[in-house]
Amino acid sequence: MAVSAGLHVSPECPALLERIDALGEALDARADEAEELGRLTEDTARALLDAGVVRAALPLSLGGDEFSPRQVIETVERVSYHDASAGWTVMALQLMTGTTAAYLGAVAAADLFPDVAGGDHALLSGHGTRPGRAVPVPGGYLVSGSWQFASGMAHATHIHSAIQVEGTGELRVLAMPKSQVELVDNWDVLGLRATHSIDYHCADVYVPVTHTYVATTTTPANGGAIYRIGLVNMAAVGHTGWALGVGRRLLDELKEVAAAKSGTRNAAVDTAQFHAEYATAEAKLRAARAWVMEVWRGIEVTLDSGELLSTEQDTLLRLALNHATWTAQDVGRTVHRWAGTTAIRRGPIDRFLRDLNTGTQHVTSSPTVLQNCGKWLSGAQPHVHWEFLDLAP
């Protein structure tokens, strides 16, 4: 197994952030067209991939850049700042492609990731919270199921899906060609319209066991310490970056609105109330980001030492995500209140607010996860651990 013990911190991160910023104007300019299409435009998606946004999440041992958790947060944050739907799409492709590369063994790696450095590798999209059925057969499984919210599917070559093995109840994750499922073009929503988060289904499709892994694994077959946090915690990394990027963009947009309206007759943005509320929103967002980085800095130290995360760290990373998400939502309400009619016309504020309101509904920031964090932190359930988004004895 090509596994490294310590945490890899990639020297490629600063250059990638610069490349993302260089694409910023193009991302913004194509956002309306992407909403009409229901997916990123081909040139936008290709530019982001060529910049290295997915390679950032792929194992170093396979030719990827293998960013650290905080570097992944910054990457998704930066894309999301320029376009929330592009950031969400990147986040999904990073998560599913990166974890597939890390947790599948040599046979699947040779098939799906033959030349990562040269750009020859699979891109995966799919859904992992509602498992399909997997019937054991010689060498693999016959898989049937229906899944939702496959963000980034328009740009994927392969499917990532959760399955439950009949007879044992074991939860696994598979990788299979996109051609083996039927896609359902039903992504008709208010926000995150350009993420192509469609449904898909299949019946009795053979998937070799080599192209599946245990969903709860924290032992990578490829790559280093970041992958020891497991699939669900890898998802938390990207979602955290997304919330921070969207919140930052909305506050910056409000600042531009204030500059344009200041000095006009009865301008609300010239009031002391506006200035106080803007300062409060700024403080909340900066504090949320600082706490995110504090939590993940501690986790990175643990990973670098070769240890697994404690229950406290598992709890805090979920709570930091929840806090960042709902802080961004609070910021969004402030922006909507003070932007006036600018917030109701087509434009960046309208689009980012719709995307934010949709993104907050993701299961990783649900009230149930927050309640579970409180159960452990308050001492109500001290002798439990996290299994996905639930507490278990």
TrEMBL record:
Q: Write out the entry's keywords from A to Z.
A: Oxidoreductase
Say if the entry is tagged with keyword Chloroplast. no
Transmembrane ranges? none
Superkingdom of this entry's organism? Answer: Bacteria
Domain annotation Acyl-CoA dehydrogenase C-terminal: ranges: 238-365
- Write down the Pfam families for this protein, in alphabetical order: Acyl-CoA_dh_2 (PF08028)
Q: What is this protein called?
A: Acyl-CoA dehydrogenase family protein
